[in-house]
Amino acid sequence: MLEVQGLTTHYRILRGWVRAVENVSFSVEQGEALGIAGESGSGKSTIALSLLRILPQGGYIRKGKIMFQGRDLVSLPDREMRKIRWKGISIVFQGAMNAMNPVYKVGDQIAEAIKLHEQGVTDSDVKERVAKLLETVGIEPSRAANYPHEFSGGMRQRALIAMALAANPIMLIGDEPGTALDVIVQAQTLRLLRDLKDRLGLAMILISHDLSIIAETCEKVAIMYAGKIVEYGDAVSIFKNPLHPYTQGLIKAFPSIKGEKVRLSSIPGQPPDLLNPPPACRFNPRCPYVMDICKREEPLLHEQDKGHLVACHLY
Amino acid sequence: MGSENEGGPVEQSVAGKPKKRKSRKTDLHYVRFKTEDGAVVPGLVHSKQVLPDGRFKDWEFNRCYLIRDIGKIGRLMAIREVERDEESLLKDLQEFRQLEAVDDDPRIPPAPVLSVENLRKWYPLKRGFFETVFSKDEMNVKAVDDVSFSLSRGEIFALAGESGSGKTTLGKVLLRLVAPSGGRIFFLGQDITKLVDKEMKPLRREMQIVFQDPFESLDPRMIIKEIVAEPLRVQGSRDIDENGKVKIRKMGEREVEERVKKMLSEVELVPPEEFLYRFPHEMSGGQRQRVAVARAFVLNPSFVVADEPVSMLDVSIRAEIVNLMVDLVRKSQASIIFISHDLALGKHIADRIAVLYLGKMMELASAENLVDQPLHPYTQALISAVPVPDPESKRTKDVISGEIPSPVDPPSGCRFHTRCPYAHERCVNEEPPLVEVEKSHYVACHLYS
Prior knowledge:
The complex is a heterodimer of chains A (315) and B (449).
Chain A: E1 2-13, E2 16-28, E3 33-37, H1 44-52, E4 59-68, E5 71-72, H2 78-84, E6 89-92, H3 106-117, H4 123-136, H5 153-164, E7 171-175, H6 183-200, E8 203-208, H7 211-217, E9 220-225, E10 228-234, H8 235-240, H9 245-253, H10 292-296, E11 302-305, E12 308-310
Parallel strand pairs in A: 3-8, 3-9, 6-7, 7-8
Antiparallel strand pairs in A: 1-2, 1-4, 4-5, 9-10, 10-12, 11-12
Helix pairs in contact in A: 3-4, 3-5, 4-5, 5-6
Chain B: H1 8-26, E1 28-35, E2 40-46, E3 64-67, E4 72-81, H2 86-96, E5 99-101, E6 114-124, H3 129-134, E7 140-151, E8 156-160, H4 167-174, E9 182-187, E10 190-191, H5 197-204, E11 207-210, H6 224-235, E12 237-240, E13 246-249, H7 253-266, H8 272-276, H9 285-297, E14 303-307, H10 315-332, E15 335-339, H11 343-349, E16 352-357, E17 360-366, H12 367-372, H13 377-385, H14 425-429, E18 435-438, E19 441-443
Parallel strand pairs in B: 8-15, 8-16, 11-14, 14-15
Antiparallel strand pairs in B: 1-2, 1-4, 3-4, 3-5, 6-7, 6-9, 9-10, 12-13, 16-17, 17-19, 18-19
Helix pairs in contact in B: 6-7, 6-9, 7-9, 9-10
């Protein structure tokens, strides 16, 4: 349904180009969830913004194709693109606390999304749709008349999801949907997203720095480092058999609630400056297995096991 | 006193009397010794003998003494203000001079660095005029309600719970950054519940805090050297001379720089010269949090509150900062309260974990015990909600519904009963006390009492 090929997005600043996303390819089918994981600054959110073409000023898609239902979103005129947003692909933003307008009622904000994207719906229809949407995400429809500050954090996150579903999209992007929520509310939100995906047959892209959230929700995983995908495959093989040293480090850095009490391990060093990233493999300054070739030649993403791709000279 | 009788001299004498009595009261301190058989022996000391940092001129907190009149050895545990009749106080005071310092006795457990008893922090709600007229009951946000525990030297104690459970407020009350509304706090044997700011200042060198967000907790207009040096400049250097006397002196510029450099290398900002003259915005999140840690540990405190110190950092950097803090705590024998909503992290670094819910302590146990065998339904719910980085163990258990209720009007009885899957009638009516159900495993739940 969605196929991204060689997507390259850069930000233009005074000192040059920030290479936020370089040559990224992936695909998502209907009813499937793809998780994109990586540190902050690895380009995860830029991918989401590129898909919808809502990059902030200075951000340009410089190369690549985004094929959505047979059409390339990169070359689509703005007017056509507007029809894709919300009806084709919609997004749930990070930070449920600030993503809503505090001076409009929650119901009205959802209604606005419906009215903007669908012509000729009557007011009573819209009202009914809002009530139904709120019910889908587990909020009492009567709460539509409340303002965002009258909602708790978890309810605001649910309302945002309802808003994203307002124009019946076929694909949903969640940009850190669980962050800034308490564990219990986070678990509730993730369960809701999973249910929605199965019930409505949505395609989903979940962006998070938290591998465990992705492990629980997604079938496919892409691990990003410094703007590139370093490992890509189905969730089970990535978590059971991580190949890239970065993925291995990330998984090890996670304190597990199960198992023995151990000293936490970390990946030493800092993520690179994307203005001038390290040559060849961008992970080489932090990699424990670094070899000469890592500093000379860029490793290409290749299939190591069936459906499990990795970009590393070790393989 | 009649209204016609308002003469100057009469009023002066009336006003003068209670003032004098008050000062006499604070002259005396109530002390507690713990003897080898576990009994607590109370006594009194004159405040002239107490130094501001919890030491005595002649006796020292957490040291063993022979109490002559009962013929036992006891460790000095706590000092607090008294409110008793003055005549009986004087008699006790005489008896208590009968003390003699002896060598530390291993039979007597060391006194806790910090202990709190029934600590409370209620924030009163602002009310409209009509509400004050028509209803008498005060409305309070019960952020911390009747919490008791103690912290031993070198211990890592984690406070867990959802947002709104009172973790951060408790941390601030322990440091006396906000005044408690009830209960008592003992720090290094001294009752600090009611100390005024001036009396708190010498103790502040022993208590520090690391905040959650290193982007906001460091002054953007100060260079790193000044940020780390600030505590040294405010508190000076504390030296103990050969007679055991404590002296505070101002530190010289060169000495300050040496200390700052040493501290920066201890938090692995090496070489320190490279970081001394940077501003916070020139550093990454992880480096900034290292600076915050350096600032907290530069005075060698005996107690640090870390308020979600890693929740704003990337996972790959998180472990480094956590390990750094654990190492510093182990090395300097400081005690630390680690506030975190992440029970998985708590399990790996803490010695003990306490779970808070709406300002009440629900469960308290050793970290492994609490996570592997949680007893309270709330702890169980928290643990089952933690996502596991394993795609094959898809969560099967039900996630509890609802969110934390408002602390203004917490549910009656057990505060968790509105969300508890095992709630029964007793939970609605009766508040469960925190009881020890296994050895050093405390739970406040009717299922176990």
